């Protein structure tokens, strides 16, 4: 869970900045970022659906003394859904013409979303993960991660794995890769890593590149590496690890 949270922290921190960096009228850039935003929205909705299907019912049943925590998580999901709806409503207007005012409206919706999301992720890590460790079996927790990978569309799997590996420590990488079929690990090694790196450069270009004469040089931007420096928590693999 924490690895996935790092991804959402990172991406939610980049999206508004990327939108604001688009030159008015640059519809090609707007289209690329709009696709990226849609993938982010889908990924977050998918993550929350897994929690609602596989975690909240078990905690409601077994951690009856902490029902207020489960209700808080459900209420926060609803609040986040409202922000996602606002983003989805604003996105098409900016996507079509890359108009500056529409871009600012979209960036504002993304900022508001991030503010609410970060509170939720903090609460989930501080309040829910201890309950998961106490009340879910290793097999039940393992099923969350396995089901999460199994339900990713095949044409998005390499990008999803790339996003995970970008944020994961060695133990977490081993956990996730162990749940990928051998053919998938081979595909990741042969084409997936390059595919993800190329997509990352395309999406983050305005914030991660510097101009050097007539060529663009890829450069790390430490201030944008949201996952860097995050205090370690439990690995995604097991509630009892």
Polypeptide structure, described:
- The protein is mainly alpha-helical and 241 residues long.
- It contains nine helices and two strands.
- Strands 1-2 form a two-stranded antiparallel sheet.
- Helix 1 runs antiparallel to helix 2 (27-54).
- It is flat, with a radius of gyration of 19 Å.
- The model is unreliable at 208-241 (pLDDT under 50).
Topology overview:
Elements lengths: L1 H19 L6 H28 L1 H7 L4 H31 L2 H36 L2 H13 L6 H11 L2 H9 L3 H27 E4 L2 E4 L23
Antiparallel strand pairs: 1-2
What structural class do you assign from the helix and strand content?
mainly alpha
Query: Unreliable runs, pLDDT <50, ≥5 residues?
Result: 208-241
- Measured distance between first and last alpha carbons: 13 Å
Quantity of strands, as a count = 2
Please outline what is shown here.
By secondary structure, the protein is mainly alpha-helical. It is built from 9 helices and 2 strands; from the N terminus they run αααααααααββ. The longest helix is centred in the middle third of the chain and has 36 residues, at 100-135.
């Amino acid at each position: 869970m924490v690895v996935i949270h790092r991804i959402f922290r990172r991406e939610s921190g980049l999206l508004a900045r990327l939108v604001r960096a688009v030159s008015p009228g640059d519809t090609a850039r707007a289209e690329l970022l709009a696709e990226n935003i849609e993938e982010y929205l889908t990924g977050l909705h998918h993550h929350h659906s897994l929690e609602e299907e596989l975690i909240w019912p078990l905690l409601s049943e077994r951690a009856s003394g902490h029902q207020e925590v489960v209700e808080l998580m459900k209420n926060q999901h609803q609040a986040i859904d409202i922000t996602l709806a606002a983003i989805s409503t604003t996105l098409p207007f900016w996507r079509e013409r890359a108009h500056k005012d529409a871009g600012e409206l979209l960036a504002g919706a993304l900022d508001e979303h991030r503010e609410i999301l970060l509170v939720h992720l903090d609460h989930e890590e501080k309040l829910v993960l201890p309950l998961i460790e106490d009340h879910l079996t290793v097999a039940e927790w393992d099923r969350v991660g396995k089901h999460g990978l199994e339900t990713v569309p095949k044409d998005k799997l390499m990008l999803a794995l790339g996003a995970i590996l970008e944020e994961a420590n060695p133990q977490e990488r081993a956990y996730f890769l162990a749940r990928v079929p051998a053919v998938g690990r081979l595909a990741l090694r042969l084409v997936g890593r390059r595919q993800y790196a190329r997509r990352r450069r395309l999406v983050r270009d305005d914030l991660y590149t510097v101009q050097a004469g007539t060529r663009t040089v890829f450069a790390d931007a430490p201030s944008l590496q949201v996952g860097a420096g995050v205090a370690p928590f439990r690995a995604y693999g097991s509630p009892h690890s």
